[in-house]
Amino acid sequence: MTAVAENTEVGRARLRKEDARLLTGRTRWTDNIAVPGMLHMAILRSPHAHARINSVDVSAAAAAPNVVAAFCGKDVAETQGVLACAWPVTEDIVMPTYLPLAVTEVRHVGEPVAVVVARDRASAVDALQLIEVDYDPLPVVLDIEAALAEGSPLVHEDKGTNKCYTWVFDSAAAGSGGDVAGVVADAEITIKRRYVQQRLIPSFMEPRSVIVEPAAGEGGSWTVYSATQIPHILRFLLAATTGTPEHKIRVIAPDVGGGFGGKLAVTPEEWIAFAAANRVGRPVKYTETRSEAMVSAHHGRDVIQDLTLYAKRDGTVTGLDVKLLANMGAYLGIVTPGVPLLGAFMYNGIYKFPAYRFECTGVFTTTTKTDAYRGAGRPEATYAIERIMDELAAEVGIDPMEVRRRNWIRHEEFPFGTVAGLTYDSGNYEAATDKAMQLLGYDELRAEQAARRESNDPKQLGIGISTYTEMCGLAPSRVLGALRYGAGGWESASVRVLPTGKVEVVTGSSPHGQGHVTSWSQIVADQLGVPFDDVEVLHGDTRTSHKGLDTYGSRSLAVGGIALVMASQKVREKARVIAAHMLECSPDDVEFADGAFRVKGSPEASKTIADCALAVFAAHNLPDGVEPTLDSEATFDPEGFSFPHGTHLCAIEVDTETGEVAIRQYVCVDDVGRVVNPLIVEGQVHGGVAQGIAQALYEEAVYDAEGNLLTSSFADYTLPSSADLPDIVSDRTETPATSNPLGVKGVGEAGTIAATPAVVNAIVDALRPFGVIDVQMPCTPERVWRALKEVIA
Amino acid sequence: MDFLRPQTWPEALARKAERPAAVPIAGGTDVMVEVNFDRRRPEALLDLTRIPELTGWERDERAIRIGANVTYTRVIEELGAELPGLAMASRTVGSPQIRNRGTIAGNLGAASPAGDAHPILLALGASVEAESVRGTRLIPAVEFYVGVKRHSLAPDELIRAVHVPLSPGPQQFSKIGTRNAMVIAVCSFALALDVPARRVGTGIGSAAPTPRRAVAAEDYVSGALPWESRDPIPDGVGARFGELVAQTASPIDDVRGSAAYRRHALAVLARRNLAWAWKEYQCA
């Protein structure tokens, strides 16, 4: 396979084909869809964080106006199936049974307990109030350290422990480095820090919604519409856990309004709608409210990180020890236990040092489960290493950028085998950093900072640095297997050339806002020499796209994009044979350029892909043995990850009296490899940075002592608005990935991963002369004020 | 739930007299949130948006009378020059969409301790024109707020207008929130200099069960400022003023902020607002 050489479409800032319909909302969001005979479902949720269910009486609800059915977990206990966790990270992991509708016990506020199905949504919601549930409250478990202590109340009594698993990586055992214990004695500097990743709520724009059309009679089939990131995985798991034949299930993810990992999930609500539709024998729709999404859809992060960094007096890192406590919540979602593992290989960041040990313990609590949220493991890792590198710089007494330079992998050292056992294929940290420092005016800002410190300005200036890398292109299937993940990491694509030369592309990577339709069109336009507008991209319906592993982990382009190149090349090679036949020469004498096949040396005669497609359609005169189709399919399983990297810098003014912070400048230079569409990349960077800033300054899911989610609406769970965000100066360097033929790396999570430590580092940098070494996220005015007050008092 | 839509002001008053439990609604930016979250199911909504008498504002020498249906956006655009403090507060309300619908009278009717309009209404000595079938009365703002989300309107009364005195002097409003906009304030503070009277008015928001004036702070600072010379504020006066303001507050701990922080931040806001207003007075 060769890299795409001459091209016209890849690299162009095409406006997105899908935007007109997505931005106006005149499209097929799941909740916009109505199917004949459809009923509406509402869910009664637990008001307790932990309670035994003594009884549920739905009789009054069932008799309410317009109500067709009402039932509870006990009524469907045999048929509702279970929700699967696909990532049992260790052999001895504790895996509790996760039922869609609770039967005997609830373990977090918002857990589904009973449902009403009615002719209209309002009737269903009203009837919920008529359901009587008798609960016996049980002790709540909220604090993950207390949960592990002897005698703690248990989330799952039958398991005998709140510990889910402990997973360890040791560079000495893995053969990728030395033993951390061996560097302790010689360490001239030892820095211990605890960082806390607060709990976050993914906050996709479109709440989750599902419609289930049940089989009409014997031999019938089911259609499930769902606002999901993973229609293919949903179909597989629905079949596997409910015993419904897979070939009888069609899953459609219509246009899906965002996910950020929050829809990388198979949900109780989908399973309950499935059970409800089967029970009433009619299609059932369920669309959640925003507050239901906030208490019930999975949360993200919620990890305590204890780090010990060992270094020499000159700032050279010699070892890193990482211990995590990760809050699983009450149950395990599809990849809950594995999220910390996605970060485990990244705590070394862009640095080279000889010894690394990582240990993560997953803990159950009576809270909403956690699972993948934009970055999944990698933001945590990047935050930890980038924060502690600043601490090292302060300890050594050098500029934090200089301490990074002394430790990072130099561009001439790639490919580089890291202490965490990965091979970074390419990168140029020097180039990205130099560009970012210039764009920010780093030296001038340091001078201004010194002046403000000198004059005791109530508004102090901080400069934050984040030189990040991350791993994308999830994932080589063999690696996933070694990590005990339940599926592979390949992706599929197919290409169909229609008789008129127009092209239909089917992708297994189901988008939810990323712009696949546009990027895929650009790739195919180049590969086949057809106009951008002549390509249609089909996705998200298991009947048209029967094979795929969907969209998450910045994988679509780096895995699905490669499958698409492979499929396109198969079509092109077949067309070459047909063109040669029409041009009456050998295929070896035909070259493809500027959208046409030509005989080498006689460029006047040419045949386009469209000419070949028409010839195939007629099939009057094809070469012997050539099937009359111009279709192909390809599946790509990556051999390695890709590693986007970059340098994010920001300048923040911190009001030392009120604790308010204001981001004055934000500069990012990202290296995401080859860029297919700069506009889409820019959008991903902006959105990602916004979400990273949000973790640093605004967002936090907060529970009270009884386990009620206090932040269950956007009035209290404070997403930033545009008024809260700075102008983002975004630029790029382009070091192509060598791990795939397009040279692409992935950009869906980079901004989120990079931005959080840049912002918090800037705040701490501003306050370091006062003695502040940490501010707990989100760094609200009050938290900043408290951090200052503690050190000044 | 009944939906009552009177076409005239007398009709609205009659409806309210018949059904005192009916909840008046104009922009709906508070009421509908409560209804949508099912925190409140009023037996009737009394829609005031059709009533022409409520949509205007008028001025005499001493005050501007703002009709109950005048939105924040209109206050900003039409009254910004004459009521700068109220316009500053209005700019911090919600989002453009909220400001296009929400009204000052609605802020009063909700009587939330966090309502953005309250502090400046207190600082300026505004009053609420309440009317019922029984007649009309003017309630001074300082007597209007009686408890958390409770006001002193009688069950049959509706807010007709708000009377805001035209204050000859600088005005300031500032607040601290957990984000820039679309958030309930952690605390807020408004200040108005009544130059002819040599008097400083104040209003505190989000830091007590009701919005309230800091009377002791007002008394202290009104006497301590060099009104005649227009000299800079003497050393220590701003800080003392801030302390007195903070002492007047009786904040609580909640998910948005602690009582200790609210007190501290109020002191800073008060000192800064005073400094900004005084600077403007010095330059005037």
Topology-level CATH name of the largest domain in chain A: Aldehyde Oxidoreductase, domain 4
Largest sheet of chain A: 7 strands, mixed
Q: Could you give the distance between the termini of chain B?
A: 54 Å
How many strands appear in the DSSP assignment of chain A? 28
Question: How many H/I helical runs of chain A?
Answer: 21
The major pleated sheet of chain B works out as: 5 strands, antiparallel
Proportion of beta-strand residues of chain B: 15-25%
Description:
Chain B: Residues 1-169 form the FAD-binding PCMH-type domain. Chain B: It comes from Rhizocola hellebori. Chain B: This is Carbon-monoxide dehydrogenase medium subunit. The complex is a heterodimer of chains A (793) and B (284). Chain A is α+β, with helices and mostly antiparallel strands. Chain A folds into three domains: 19-26 and 490-636, Aldehyde Oxidoreductase, domain 4 (2-Layer Sandwich); 33-138 and 205-258 and 263-296, Aldehyde Oxidoreductase, domain 3, CATH 3.90.1170.50; 378-473 and 641-792, Aldehyde Oxidoreductase, domain 4 (2-Layer Sandwich), CATH 3.30.365.10. Chain A contains 21 helices and 28 strands. In chain A, the strands form seven sheets. A seven-stranded mixed beta sheet of chain A has the order 3-5-1-12-9-10-11, with helices on both faces. In chain A, helix 17 (556-583) packs across helix 18 (609-618). Chain A starts with 18 loop residues before the first helix and ends with a helix. Residues 1-5 of chain A have low confidence and may be disordered. Chain B has 284 residues and is an alpha+beta fold. Among the domains of chain B are: 1-48, Uridine Diphospho-n-acetylenolpyruvylglucosamine Reductase, domain 2, CATH 3.30.43.10; 171-283, CO dehydrogenase flavoprotein, C-terminal domain (Enolase-like, domain 1, 2-Layer Sandwich), CATH 3.30.390.50. In chain B, 36% of the residues lie in helices and 23% in strands. Chain B is built from eleven helices and 13 strands. A five-stranded antiparallel beta sheet of chain B has the order 4-5-10-6-7. Chain B starts with a strand and ends with a helix. The model of chain B has no long low-confidence stretch (mean pLDDT 96). The A-B interface holds A 291, 657-660, 698, 702, 710-711, 713-716, 718-721, 723-724, 780-782, 785-786 and B 37, 95, 176, 178-184, 186, 255-258, 261, 264-265, 268-269.
